[in-house]
């Protein structure tokens, strides 16, 4: 799995971001963050481990269970057997469900939960493979009562208008805007536009954007001939812009404390600083940049890094 696959998976593994994604592109009435249960996908066939980047959520609401399975496709070569891959994955999810409900599965009234398969594709070429299984089976019309059939839902980034992404005014939409536009425009122009939208975010969205921003910029370098990560290091304006997200957010929180608007938020600010610092360390951001952005010392950053390394062991 490539770096970009990992980052997109990390993005949608964030329940808040995932919920915003679903609201924008596949709305389910009444769906709330508390209804989502994140599931592991390592039990799915290892035959596709190299190419698979996926996210699996279970919706548990009113005694009912529905699975949302999303494949994240970034490859330049389009997989014409995608619908067949989906079938394989769905069967594995059902196998896993049966394994976890062995006793119930033997009962007459036992039924498998529905799985909603969704493809998110952000490649440059137009997605042309069929979305219905029957389109990949010979003589399907003559044997339609004897063969399985389903279709997956496709979300193609290039088909989504820029105005819609920015109009969402949330972290998810703006990050997808960066992914969609960065290869066609000057990096500073795209980042400046994203900052304009960032200023309109609610506090929760600002926090989420900051959590994923730098890692997202790093993976965008894969879509261009320019190493964006190196570019950022040399562009003072971009570095200042990057740091300003954190600075402005913390300044606003500290002002709220002085005005007595939010009781006990000081502890929350410290937690946010530590969590943001951890995210930056995971992305190998220079400690001096982190120190300047977070307003904490290099020694504190090293201590956080030591604790992270200890937790790995």
Tell me the layout of helices and strands.
Layout: H1 3-12, H2 15-25, E1 36-39, E2 54-61, E3 64-73, H3 82-100, H4 102-105, E4 115-121, E5 153-156, H5 162-167, H6 171-181, H7 187-198, H8 203-220, H9 228-234, H10 236-258, H11 265-282, H12 287-294, H13 298-312
Parallel strand pairs: 3-4, 4-5
Antiparallel strand pairs: 1-2, 2-3
Helix pairs in contact: 1-8, 6-7, 6-8, 7-10, 8-10, 8-11, 10-11, 10-12, 11-13
Domain Transposase (putative) YhgA-like: 5-207
InterPro entries: Rpn/YhgA-like_nuclease, RpnA, Transposase_31
Family: Belongs to the Rpn/YhgA-like nuclease family.
**Averaged pLDDT:** 80
Question: How big is the Rg?
Answer: 22 Å
Largest beta-sheet characterization: 5 strands, mixed
For the secondary structure, the number of strands is 5
Strand order of the largest sheet: 1-2-3-4-5
Overall domain count? 2
Residue stretches low in confidence (pLDDT < 50, at least 5 long) are 261-266
- Helix/strand-derived class? alpha/beta
The portion of residues forming beta strands comes to 5-15%
Number of helices: 13
The quaternary organization reads as: single chain
Order of helices and strands: HHEEEHHEEHHHHHHHHH
Helix content: 40-55%
Shape: globular
Report how far apart the termini are: 23 Å
């Amino acid at each position: 799995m490539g770096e970009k696959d990992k980052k997109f998976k990390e993005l949608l593994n964030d329940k808040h971001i995932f919920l915003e994604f679903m609201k924008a592109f596949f709305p389910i009435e009444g769906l709330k963050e508390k209804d989502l249960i994140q599931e592991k996908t390592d039990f799915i066939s290892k035959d596709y481990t190299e190419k698979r980047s996926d996210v699996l959520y279970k919706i548990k609401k009113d005694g009912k269970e529905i699975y949302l399975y999303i494949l994240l496709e970034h490859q330049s070569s389009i997989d014409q057997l995608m619908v067949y891959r989906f079938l394989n994955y769905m069967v594995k999810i059902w196998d896993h469900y049966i394994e976890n409900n062995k006793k119930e599965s033997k009962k007459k009234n036992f039924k498998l939960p529905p799985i909603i398969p969704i493809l998110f594709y952000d490649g440059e070429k137009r997605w042309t493979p069929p979305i219905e299984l029957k389109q990949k089976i010979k003589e399907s019309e003559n044997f339609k009562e004897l063969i399985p059939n389903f279709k997956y839902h496709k979300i193609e980034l290039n088909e989504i208008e820029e105005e819609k992404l920015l109009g969402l005014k949330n972290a998810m939409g703006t990050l997808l805007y960066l992914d969609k536009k960065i290869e066609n425009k000057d990096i500073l122009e795209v980042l400046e536009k994203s900052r304009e939208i960032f200023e309109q975010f609610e506090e929760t969205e600002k926090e989420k954007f900051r959590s994923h921003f730098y890692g997202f910029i790093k993976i965008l370098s894969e879509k261009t001939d320019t190493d964006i990560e190196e570019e950022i290091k040399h562009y003072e304006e971009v570095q200042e812009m990057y740091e300003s997200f954190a600075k402005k957010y913390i300044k606003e929180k500290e002002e709220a404390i002085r005005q007595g608007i939010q009781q006990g938020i000081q502890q929350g600010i410290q937690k946010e600083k530590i969590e943001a610092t951890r995210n930056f360390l995971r992305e190998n951001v220079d400690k001096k940049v982190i120190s300047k952005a977070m307003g904490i010392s290099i020694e504190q950053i090293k201590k956080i890094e030591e604790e992270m390394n200890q937790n790995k062991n």
